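Fig. S4 source data, part A: sequence.
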Amino acid sequence: MNPNRQPLQNYLAQILEAIKRLQAHTGDISEINFLSNIPAQDSSLHELANIGQSCRALCQFYELYAKANSQIPFSAMARFDELLDGQKNPEILDLEAMDLWEIIKVDIPRFQQQVKQAYAILLRKKKINV
């Protein structure tokens, strides 16, 4: 077993926690204010990168789980880990503020619901198996 591998529920919890922080940075802010608020954009990018790192690890260590739950876009979200790594993926690194806003307000809430459901199912299965 890889020493860096964590239990699956840890990755799901990390994703949900990063989403919670992301929403705390952007929850009360209007689109117009967000587009002119560089610190809010930077903190949002940081949390997206955290989400990406957890998704990448989940896809790496729990590949079968990610494939079996292909409706949850773990691999697509994993690409956001490149935001912190400084890798040269123009699609990720050149996110416009408008695109970032749409990801935060449209894609992330949907993803959050999917991860919450997966987390709840996983916890129920663990209780049944105990």
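Fig. S4 source data, part B ends here. Residues 50 and 81 are 6 Å apart (CA to CA).
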